[in-house]
Amino acid sequence: MRYLELDLPKRISKIGLGTWQFGSPEWNYGRRYADVEAERIVARALELGVTLFDTAEIYGLGRSERILGRALAGRSAFVAMKLFPLLPVAPVVVRRGRASARRLGVAHLDLYQVHQPNPFVRDGTTMRGMRELQREGVVGEVGVSNYGLTRWLAAEAALGTRVLSNQVRYNLVDRSAEVDLIPHAEQNERVVIAYSPLAQGFLTGAYSSTKRPRNLMRRRSRLFSSESFAQRAALLRALDEIARAHDATPAQVALAWTIRHRSVVAIPGASSVAQLESNVAAAELELSDAEIQELR
Questions:
Q1: Helix intervals (H) in 137-232
Q2: Is the dihedral of CA 43, 44, 50, 54 positive or negative?
Q3: How many other CB atoms are there within 10 angstroms of residue 185's CB atom?
Q4: pLDDT digit string, tens, across residues 208-232
Q5: Cα 279 to Cα 3, 141, 214, distances in angstroms
Q6: Catalytically active residues, by annotation
Q7: Mean pLDDT in residue range 181-196
Q8: Considering only Cβ atoms within 10 Å of each terminal Cβ, which end of the chain, N or C, has fewer?
Q9: Residues 246-278: b if buried by 16+ CB within 10 A, e if exposed
Q10: pTM, rounded to two decimals
Q11: In 116-250, which ranges are E strands?
Q12: Residue 90 has what pLDDT?
């Protein structure tokens, strides 16, 4: 495993674990996954050096937090939580931050993120709530998610100290974070947390125009349409060729490409222990400049 080079009380692994699928019925993973497999995945992740675990109060309406909390059971990890920004005024932020900590069974959230910008509520009141949680010791670092650079900077000004991270979609088919978010992070010791680094499985090689996903979350996405596969055929071929050259998988190549930036970490989900192990192995994969350019 590789880790961010930041001065923090806990290390942040370059490959983390996203837990949207823990207890969320829309993924159709079933009860056994929530009751048994999820805890096995977390335990194996810890063994392999994963320290970053990301969840949110909206995932399974709190169930993901409870599952993750049981799986961690007091073991050391960097836990990143997300606040659903429905009326994110200061007292609500404080109340819900405390509630998330209780569901996780911890006294301290390493990172508390605003899940997405609220178009009607400015970040001033939200960050007052974050400051109170930091003062109480409930929250260590503050982050945001799905913020543009201007609003990220405004949130930091409102907080009065660093907003450590911005969690955004970043992968080989959505590279918008490269415009200004990643450069800002690299120049200012901030972090971009890449969610959906495998484009919900599109970049894994598991699907094609003739092999469509069964999962409803994926089937609803235009990314998995026949037109999308045709448009991105060259990219998928390049992923496959580079993977064979490294005795790796297309998913591992896609993850290695994503975390090549000094300030970027990725939080792929995992449907099994085997998939988790494959994701983690991507941290050891070094792509050449020519391969990175070919994928671009």
A1: 149-159, 181-188, 216-219, 226-231
A2: negative
A3: 23
A4: 877 877 776 676 788 888 888 899 9
A5: 15, 26, 22
A6: 59
A7: 97
A8: C
A9: eebbbbbbbbbbbbebebbbbbbbbbeeeebeb
A10: 0.94
A11: 139-145, 163-169, 191-195
A12: 97
